[in-house]
Every structure is written in C-alpha cells, then in structure tokens.
Write a structure and sequence with these properties.
With about 80 residues, the chain is mainly α. Helix content is about 60%, strand content about 0%. It starts with a helix and ends in a 6-residue tail after the last helix.
C-alpha cells in the first residue's frame, strides 16, 4: 500500500533530517568504514576479487587473490602490500 499524503510528507521530512544528521556524523568522524555485500564492486565499476591480484608483484609470484589473503605473506613480505 502507499502512504497517505501526510505520511509521505512526514517520511520526506524525516529523510531530509536523517540525511543531514548522517552528513554531520560523517563530517565529524575520524574514519569512515563502508561494508558492502558481494556484487557491489562490479556494479559500481570497481575491481572485483578476480582483478585484485592482477598486479605485477603478485603475477611475478603467480599469486591469486586467495593466496595473498594468507597472513604469512603480510608477515614475510609486507612490501607486497604497499
């Protein structure tokens, strides 16, 4: 069902207020962490997991994304990640 005109107006007013409050919180934050679900990257035109390891440093070692997710790579060769 659709909201009544009055309900729609209250929703729109609340939406604007919520957006202003969110913008203020983001402006005042030290860090902004975005957590997204699977498929968000591809739909946004960002690199997907299959593309992440397509960099020369990883390709030279014949590493795939799931390989570089292993903690020992960061511990042994942190320069791979910079």
């Amino acid at each position: 069902s659709e909201p009544s005109k009055e309900q729609a107006e209250r929703l729109q007013d609340g939406w604007g207020r919520g957006c202003r409050e969110a913008a203020a919180a983001i402006r005042g934050a030290d860090v902004l962490l975005l957590c997204t679900g699977a498929g968000f990257s591809a739909d946004s035109g960002l690199a997907v997991y299959a593309d992440v390891a397509c960099v020369p440093a990883y390709a030279l070692r014949r590493l795939k994304y799931h390989d570089i997710c292993q903690p020992h790579w960061l511990q042994r060769e942190p320069q791979l990640f910079w």
